[in-house]
Write a structure and sequence with these properties.
Chain lengths: 276, 479
């Protein structure tokens, strides 16, 4: 599966033939262009799906109504007509729709679908890059990203206006940066990963599970004689940048104290639901 | 846990999930050594999988993050199978070699074709909605739109009409009797007082006729306006029905002059004239449900509302930023205060008084400041049945004060001991006053409206403002 893996008893003639076959199917040049091929495939898959489906479903209408209310009252607390659901949907995706709609003049549905198209096409590309940096062989990475680009669950989320497409993009991006940070010992990549996870938190509530990711990365690190100090510094860098990005994005989108309270309350409610 | 598993299977699709499981098997069997990032990522996704299996998932999209490891593992399984076949010299035959290559690329293509959902009948629902919209526009009276397809949001998006959502989808020959009886009940409730009812349904070919022969429905004629296939399987259809009264009874006719003295006996409502008021602070329960700052409505706790009016949280009611329910002293219809309701979305004001289940004649004064749609509901209170019965729907245009009179049949609320009256404003701004409820022997649902003479209104108002306490002897029937 990986470049570093020792084939062991799988070595020998068969593996040679596999590589020969792979080379015939995919020249080295083709695999070097894999991100572009995957990007193109995702663009085509999502584009055709958008052409064939209007993307109007319960969630799309709900999201468009939320954005409409936000734009109408210019207050994030009045995002939803009913007060209890003001924090039901974290606001990043809605804010992006609102901003795009405001500056480009699209209606909310079109703006949401354009965003989805963009993020949906980029997700497999970053997925491919993440796999490659992780040490996965080029052909396996290429095939995986191609399948991901064509998977109904990915295409469906691009067609309808929901935050899932953005969330998946952010998830892959966070994994990409953190893998890059670990493999290349890049401090900035840790910062970037923290910031992306913060944006994911503002997109879906379950992104909180990604706060576990840096910790998990350093459990295997301990076996590699990495010092506690270095691990602590990198984890601190991750969380600090996440907190800073969360706060900055909140200010940019117009949060106020009551919304913070509601947002955190929502997290607690979710946690309680999960535990019960 | 079973529910979560189903959500995961639906999200990942069965072939990808099967391939991913095979990938796990190959990974363990071949004892592959993973790099550090892959080890950490595998551990992370394993934790994600565990909590998703352990907690019920509301939507299958919550399992979306598992797609990434599943896809990699699935592809790894495919390549491992290829390796195994190579070892068995399976690909010495050029046919199988090519067949496998084709399969490798056919898999994404197959997924792609599935994800495109090609449907030549995709516009069916849009067309049905257009028919409903055009037909409703031709009719002078307000109409009710009932949805039994669980597609209310799509229908309201396409048609721009207010759609009453019904939770259950009724479809197929084997639709449980409970669902069908619920459907009939909802239909009876809606057509009890409205001039036209449109029903959106999704029917299987060969479905039995769901419209019963009972009295409430048979007084109304049903007509199939349009039907379209749902998809290319041609198994299901979108169907639009229109119900109109056969005998011409209408809930809103041309207003007749008021008939003084028609009301007699005890008024069951204690603060029907809304003269007694209290601050919003008193409604602690309602206020506590809303954290301060979340809704502008509860921001001003000193706002005056009539006593015995509770800001109700009945299903479907939404107190938006623009919602107002108050005791209005500026231009009251009678006395010093009237009940004022204003909103762009449905809000409810409940008269917090248990009324025994009998036949009644209800009358009230109503004035609107802009086009409004007001509904009157009876909510069974004891025992709580979880239903709301619509007594009447009134579309009001701005103009003079009108008196509305209607009969509430005991049949409507016979299954409960008590009920409560609820005013539900769908949109607009209305002033309500002099709500009176008298016992009546008649049980028909006929209602009529009457224009209040402006001089009568003025006289009543002057009398009340002159200091005569209405509760201390002024006749309830003011004219």
């Amino acid at each position: 599966m990986t470049d570093r893996a020792s084939p062991g008893r799988w070595n020998g003639r068969s593996c040679q033939r596999i590589s020969e076959m792979s080379e015939k199917m995919f020249s080295a040049r083709m695999l070097s262009e894999a991100p572009w091929i995957v990007f193109g495939a995702a663009m085509i898959a999502n584009g055709v799906a958008m052409f064939l489906n209007d993307g109007v479903c319960r969630d799309s209408v709900y999201y468009c109504n939320l954005v409409g209310n936000w734009q109408k009252y210019d207050d994030i607390m009045l995002l939803s007509p009913s007060a209890w659901s003001a924090t039901a949907v974290p606001p990043l995706y809605l804010w992006l729709i609102k901003t795009l709609s405001r500056f480009a003049g699209y209606d909310f549905l079109t703006a949401g679908r354009i965003l989805n198209y963009f993020f949906g096409a980029l997700t497999p590309v970053f997925f491919y890059r993440t796999l490659r940096i992780s040490g996965v062989k080029a052909f396996l990475a290429f095939l995986s990203s191609l399948v991901l680009a064509c998977h109904p669950a990915m295409v469906d989320t691009c067609v309808i206006v929901t935050r899932d497409c953005l969330y998946r993009f952010l998830v892959v991006l966070a994994a990409f940066f953190i893998v890059k940070g670990v493999r290349q010992a890049n401090q900035w990549a840790f910062c970037a990963s923290g910031m992306v996870v913060a944006l994911a938190l503002l997109t879906r509530y379950e992104a909180a599970e990604f706060l576990l990711l840096p910790v998990l990365f350093f459990i295997p690190h301990f076996t590699k004689n990495v010092t506690w100090k270095l691990c602590g510094r990198q984890i601190a860098l991750f969380f600090c940048s996440a907190a800073a990005a969360f706060w900055a994005a909140g200010c940019l989108m117009g949060f106020h104290a009551a919304y913070w309270a509601g947002f955190l309350h929502r997290y607690l409610v979710r946690a309680k639901d999960l535990l019960s | 846990m079973i529910l979560s598993l189903r959500a995961i299977v639906l999200e990942l699709t069965p072939p990808v999930l099967a391939a991913a499981l095979a990938g796990v098997f190959f990974l363990l069997f071949r004892r592959q050594k993973l790099t550090l990032p892959l080890r950490a990522l595998s551990l992370f996704f394993f934790v994600c999988l565990l909590w998703r299996l352990g907690a019920p998932l509301i939507s299958r999209r919550y399992a979306g993050v598992l797609l990434f490891p599943a896809v990699v593992l699935g592809c790894y399984a495919l390549l491992s199978i290829r390796d195994q076949l190579l070892r068995w010299r399976f690909f010495d035959n050029i046919f199988w070699k090519r067949a496998f290559c084709v399969f490798l690329f056919a898999a994404p293509l197959g997924l792609l074709l599935k994800s495109w959902h090609f449907n030549p009948y995709a516009d069916g629902l849009k067309e049905i909605c257009a028919v409903a919209r055009t037909d409703a526009a031709r009719r002078p009276h307000a109409s009710t739109f009932l949805d039994f397809t669980r597609n209310s949001d799509r229908i309201s998006f396409f048609s721009k009409l207010p759609i009453d959502h019904w939770q259950r989808e009724i479809i197929g020959k084997n639709a449980p009797e409970k669902q069908i009886s619920g459907f009939r009940r909802a239909l009876r409730r809606s057509i009890g007082s409205n001039s036209t009812v449109y029903v959106f349904m999704k029917k299987s070919s060969g479905d039995p006729d769901l419209f019963p022969e009972d009295a409430a429905v048979s007084r109304w004629g049903s007509e199939k306006l349009a039907e379209r296939y749902v998809n290319r399987k041609r198994k299901h259809k979108w169907v639009l029905y229109r119900f109109t009264p056969k005998n011409g009874i209408s809930s809103r006719g041309i207003p007749a002059p008021p008939t003084p003295g028609s009301r007699s006996g005890k008024n069951f409502l204690m603060n029907g004239d809304f003269e007694k008021t209290e601050t919003l602070e008193k409604q602690k329960k309602a206020c506590e449900r809303y954290v301060a700052g979340r809704s502008l409505f509860f921001a001003d706790r000193n706002k005056l509302i009539p006593q015995r009016i509770s800001i109700s949280h009945l299903p479907g009611g939404e107190l938006g930023a623009d919602a107002e329910i108050e005791a209005c002293s500026a231009e009251p219809l009678a006395g010093a205060f009237s009940l004022r309701m204003k909103s762009e979305s449905t809000i409810f004001a409940c008269i917090a008084q248990d009324i025994p289940s009998e036949s009644y004649r209800l009358s009230f004064w109503l004035k609107s400041r802009r086009p409004s749609l007001l509904n009157l509901y009876a909510v069974p209170f004891s025992p709580w049945a979880g239903d709301m019965f619509r007594i009447a729907t009134i579309s009001v245009l701005p103009g003079e004060t009108r008196e509305y009179t209607l009969d509430i049949s005991r049949d409507l609320v016979k299954h409960c001991h008590h009920f409560r009256l609820v005013f539900g404003l769908d949109f607009g701004e209305v002033l309500i006053d002099n709500v009176e409820l008298h016992k009546s022997s008649s049980g028909t649902a006929f209602s009529r409206t009457a224009v209040l003479r402006p001089d009568a209104c003025k006289a009543v108002r002057q009398k009340l403002l002159a200091g005569r306490n209405r509760a201390d002897g002024l006749p309830q029937n003011a004219f």
